[in-house]
Amino acid sequence: MLPDDLAMELAEAVIIAASGFWLALPAMLPNSAAVLTGGGTPVDLGRSWKGRRLLGDGKTWRGFLGGAGAGVLLGLVMLGISSLAGWGDNGGYGPIGQALGVIVVLAVGSLLGDMLGSFVKRRLDVPRGAKMPILDQYDFLIGAFVLVAIAYPSWFFTSYIEGWNIMALITLLVITPLLHRGMNILGYRMGKKDVPW
Ligand code: CTP
Ligand code: MG
Question: Tens digit of pLDDT for each residue in 173-193?
Fold first, then answer.
């Protein structure tokens, strides 16, 4: 048997990790939603820079708007669930103005990070859809977290950095590549993606 205080600390760490995952969901959904809504006019309008596409045909306006919209919508549903369940603090997002702001920044930030990832890939002459380990799995999470850390620094610090809350960040860093891979295999089997990564 674990000593009571250690068991308590472990239980707290699990709750922190789960809550950190919950709070990050509006940053996780947009990528998959962009696969489903994407197509049509590319964000870079087909333009190139130094002989290589700015972003490539894999980044479209429809994917951006559909993905961001899906992330924000999910965030609103989560706020509804928090309120119905009687969780205080809007389930961890804080006062409503901040809660809405964080959700929008997470959803939009994740797709901006995804675009920055494609920009870097094109500069390194990696073609659209080709694998680029680490960057492919983390670009959206980095985009979302960097922007939210700038826009809502104290919320980001207390949720993902301070004390045991760092467990939430570590958990996300471990889970994200697995989820990313899983979702891409699903998208591939559904015929929505040409490659399973
Ligand atoms: N998608 C989109 N618009 C976005 C993001 C994604 O239309 N802003 C769609 C595209 O159909 C894209 C698919 O989602 O092909 C998968 O996204 P991703 O893996 O990020 O793009 P890749 O095609 O792999 O291109 P890149 O090499 O630039 O990452
Ligand atoms: Mg890809």
Answer: 999 999 999 999 999 999 999
Among protein residues, the one with the nearest Cα to ligand 1's atom 24 is 129
| C-alpha R_g of the chain | 18
Q: How far apart are CA 105 and CA 67, in angstroms?
A: 13
Q: Which ligand is nearest to the CA of 114?
A: 1
Tokens encoding 137: 């799995």
The protein residue whose alpha carbon is closest to atom 28 in ligand 1 is 118
Strand partners, 60: 42
**What's the pLDDT tens digit per position in 4-57?**
899 988 898 899 999 999 999 999 999 999 999 999 999 999 999 999 999 999
pTM above 0.85, yes or no: yes
